[in-house]
Specification:
Strand content: under 5%
Order of helices and strands: HHHHHHHHHHHHHH
Distance between the termini: 64 Å
Radius of gyration: 25 Å
């Protein structure tokens, strides 16, 4: 409920300014929000954002509301912004929330950690959005690293990427352990999926200054070999006729077919893949 001591037309003016600014957020809306006070402005902005989440219209009002809340650091709007993280990755409101939440500091950290703890493993899109927002916080709080490490069990590729982007060098040992777990019991339901997870973790370990053990590399190469056999090149313009024939290739670690004595991956594999894409 709006505070009855504050003229309701102030809230109406702010809503109107948000709705009529086709060119985006401007100083008029910022000044109006300041003039009606932080409490009322936060209530208006939260309601605009939540209305879009429950009854999507695709209008620009909620996006402008999200940016305005971040501009004025209206902490009561944080819960509404956190809910936006479950939207599809290219949704403008989700992007506005990701951009704005780091400006709220400790309030965002607490809300994001609580939301991630309460998010089920089946809510992949929401978990990914929450983790992405956490990773963007400038704080060096160890709870952020711990939350991303927990995510390694369900979303290995996403968690590894975010840990690397944050420069979390303390996470190398846990990433290596996650690699061992994936090699023993893949999260993905096929070698192509598992390949994505393993490659992301290997890349993160390397970016953070670590390295994989020889056994890990060999076992990972086995998965990559199996995934390679499942991969079917796709030609956009290929006619729908008989399936294209491809000469059988040796495994990545097998001797190259040219007789050089080198492993296939270190010899003709790049050239063969380039020729297959033509």
């Amino acid at each position: 409920m709006l505070d009855p001591t504050i003229p309701a037309h102030g809230a109406a003016r702010l809503r109107a300014l948000l709705a009529t600014r086709a060119s985006g957020l401007d100083d008029a809306a910022v000044e109006e929000a300041r003039s009606i006070g932080a409490e009322l402005a936060a209530e208006v902005l939260s309601s605009v954002i939540l209305r879009e989440l429950s009854h999507p219209t695709g209008s620009g009002d909620p996006v402008r509301a999200a940016y305005l809340a971040a501009e004025l650091k209206l902490t009561p709007v944080v819960p509404a912004l956190v809910r936006c993280l479950a939207l599809p990755s290219i949704h403008p409101l989700r992007l506005a929330a990701l951009t704005g939440l780091p400006r709220f500091g400790a309030a965002s950290l607490a809300a994001l950690l609580a939301a991630l703890d309460g998010c089920g493993s089946t809510e992949g899109r929401a978990r990914e959005g929450l983790a992405e927002a956490l990773s963007r916080l400038p704080s060096d709080d160890a709870r952020i690293r711990a939350a991303l490490l927990r995510l390694l069990d369900d979303e290995p590729a996403t968690a590894a990427r975010l840990l690397a982007e944050r420069g979390e060098w303390r996470a190398v040992a846990q990433l290596s352990s996650a690699m061992d777990r994936l090699l023993a019991a893949p999260v993905g339901d096929c070698d192509l999926c598992n390949r994505e997870h393993l490659v992301a973790i290997a890349r993160a370990v390397r970016y953070l200054g670590g390295s994989l053990g020889e056994e890990q590399r060999d076992r990972m190469e086995e998965v990559l070999d199996r995934a390679e056999r499942l991969w079917v090149p796709f030609e956009d313009a290929a006619p729908v006729t008989a399936p294209a024939r491809r000469d059988p290739r040796p495994g990545r670690n097998a001797p190259c077919h040219c007789g050089s004595g080198k492993k296939y991956k270190n010899c003709h594999l790049p050239a063969d893949e380039q020729r297959a894409r033509r």
